[in-house]
Write a structure and sequence with these properties.
This protein is mainly α and 66 residues long. It has two helices and no strands. The longest helix is centred in the last third of the chain and has 32 residues. It is flat, with a radius of gyration of 16 Å. The N and C termini lie far apart (38 Å). The relative contact order is 0.08.
Length: 66
């Protein structure tokens, strides 16, 4: 049972990472240092999480109005 929960969580994380690689071009980072690549990666994750939060809140707001 515990393994199934861990598998589902990891699967969701990997789906998000695949989405980010495809739409935010994370597989095309050409920085010379690891620090710049990490900052790029962190900014992409921040943008994704902000968009996801906004969409979730708007959806929730529309459901409460209707």
């Amino acid at each position: 049972m515990k393994w199934t929960e861990i598998y589902k969580e990891r699967s969701a994380v990997e789906r998000v990472n695949a989405y980010l690689e495809g739409y935010f071009l994370l597989n095309q980072i050409y920085h010379c240092t690891g620090k710049k690549a990490k900052v790029h990666f962190d900014l992409v994750h921040l943008a994704y999480n902000a968009c996801k939060l906004a969409v979730d809140r708007l959806s929730q707001l529309q459901l409460s109005v209707a």
